[in-house]
Amino acid sequence: MVSALLPFEGPADLSRIEAPVTLKAYLICAFAACGGLFFGYDTGWINGVLGMPYFITLYTGYQYDYDKKQPIGVDPTNFGLPSSTKSLMTSILSCGTFFGALIAGDIADFIGRRLTIIIGCLIFCVGAILQIASTNQTVLFVFGRLIAGLGVGFISTVIILYMSEIAPRKVRGALVSAYQFCITVGILLANCVVYATQDRNDTGSYRIPIGVQFLWAVILGTGLFILPESPRYHVMKGQLHSAAKSLAYVRGQPIESEYIKDELAEIVANHEYEMQVVPQTSYIGSWVACFHGSLRKGNSNIRRIILGCGLQMWQQLTGINFIFYFGTTFFQQLGTISNPFFISLITTLVNVLSTPISFVAIEYLGRRFLLIYGALGMVIMQYIVAIVGTTAGRVEADDPAAVRAMIAFICLNIFFFATTWGPTGWVVIGECFPLPIRSRGVGISTACNWFWNCIIAVVAPYMVGTSKGSANLGPKIFFIWGSLCIFSMLFAYFLVPEMKGLTLEQIDKMMEEVSPRKSKKWMPKTTFVAELARRDQEKSRQQWRDVNAATNVGGVESGMGGCGYNQEGNEMGNMDPYGAQHGAGVQGGYGGNSPSMGRDPYESPNTVRY
After folding, report:
1. CA-CA distance, 359 to 430, in Å (whole number)?
2. HEC string for 259-288
3. Domain of life, per the record (predicted)?
């Protein structure tokens, strides 16, 4: 048996590598998921504000009769912002989030996941202030959105990272899906606020929707001062006692619990294994390491990057954000809809009500199933919208029934997205990267999401616009989105493995042993601690001593360094759980003497010796 090979009572039993799920774990992740409100709310309010009469008048000079609710001296179909202005105002936030997402990974590794999110909230507030301060100053408004985007990039990247690292494996998919749910709630809240202010004949029409965003920043930033840091971040920094305290908090167990010891030992063993596999060189070299490996090996870093970036790219190319960014102006162009703001509100409500279905489906049906069949559903719905829109739904046909049918199938398309690709894309990127490159992997993948988000925001107004130089595709654009969904389906079938019910450490092993198409049948057979014991019994014995010391209620603080995990501020002396005594008050590992307060994750692995 495996346990007979171990020099200690470690987590060789697969059932003991994680504590039972508690209400506290649900609540912590649910609160962290509120970061999705930033992404969603911005998507919602910019969609509505770009179609507001006062905002259009402010930036074009066209006059509007608020009593008759129609423009003065201009055709209603031409009453709107130029395609170039809409493109710039919408896409510039995505440009900021792209760079924010790339930067956030490194910052999260150096100062922690929690503090990085708080800094993101502060940056976002600065951007919101600049947008409110602008009147008809395009430059100030655009610059404000760029700064706000930088903050959203921080938040959108690190929230996924944080939630994936603290969520219990059995419900991790459901809890991370809550992030997508909060995105949809943010879109809905924005549409409600915009719907309430759309007819105002003053700056409050757009300043109120922008100002409401401060509420999300205050709630998230304040709450994260209370929540614990990710235990896996502490392990990466070598601070085992801090990792044990955080793990005990999020699992709702006493720090000396066997569950905490076993899970912490497994996290440490996996990290040490990955540090041996991932090349550790210079700062630039550590970025290059994210792209190392063979394309044929499912667990290589380059394959994981392709998986994460591909998922985020195809998620955007489903065309969902075309509906939420430009839905109001698109519905105005259909000609037979009297209140396009209300239709946008309906599509948003469908998005919100559909997303919770994924909480259950992602854990019972799995990631692969949702991605493959969700893409298939979107292909069918979008082709129907395009076919109806180019026949009976044409503006010249003046057929309200056909337009209502188009709206119905657009809502069904949103349903398929909200229950599948919406949440699952975020869940998988939080699961597929090993700890040494996890923050950068999630950052690169999230940046890819915002890159394609930006591309769509730049290009879409010209694709459906009616101004000079625009393609004026109208409903034909859904032929494009539907065709792209076919490629999304093929990507999921060939490259996305099934990660349901596995710990982050077990996912590493699964990606190493089987191809994505065979991953559904894969079952863990051992633990990283058990494998470490087979390879190096002395190292595994030392690791278990460190874990026992870290979970000692006496408060021994650990950090990687020396000949093991060095003690940070140990005023009690080093007590070897196996009986060996070391100098009281000495700052160093068991048998080590490094004064390090924790190891930089990008230093050479030679600084970590057991």
Report:
1. 16
2. HHHHHHHHHHHHHHHHHHHCCCCCHHHHHH
3. Eukaryota
Phi, psi for residue 293 in degrees, rounded to 5: 110, 175
Q: Quickly state the pLDDT bin for 18 (edges 50, 70, 90).
A: low
Instruction: Return d(Cα 589, Cα 566) in angstroms, integer.
Output: 4
Give the confidence band of 421 by pLDDT, cuts at 50, 70, 90.
very high
Taking only the tens place, the pLDDT of each residue in 357-386 is 999 999 899 999 999 999 999 999 999 999
- Alpha helices, H only, 283-364: 283-288, 301-316, 320-333, 340-354, 357-364
Contacts of 559 (CB under 8 A, 6+ apart): 237, 238, 239, 240, 565, 566, 567, 568, 596, 597, 598, 599
Give percent of the chain with pLDDT exceeding 90. 26
pLDDT confidence bin for 583, thresholds 50/70/90 = very low
Q: Which residues contact 525 (CB under 8 A, 6 or more apart)?
A: none
Bridge partners (DSSP) of residue 350 are: none
List Cα–Cα distances, 408 to 405, 415, 479, 509, in angstroms.
5, 11, 17, 44
User: Running DSSP on this structure, what letter comes out for residue 78?
Assistant: G
Q: Are 496 and 365 in contact (CB under 8 A)?
A: no
Maximum alpha-carbon separation in the chain: 90
Q: Are 46 and 163 in contact (CB under 8 A)?
A: no
3-state secondary structure of 4: helix
d(CA 229, CA 112): 7
Identify which of 175, 157, 169 has the alpha carbon closest to the alpha carbon of residue 103.
157
SS3 assignment, position 560 = strand
Buried b or exposed e, range 515-528, using 16+ CB within 10 angstroms: ebeebeebebeebb
State both tokens at 308.
Answer: 């994460």
How far apart CA 12 and CA 15 sit, in angstroms, is 9
**Does residue 565 sit in helix, strand or coil?**
strand
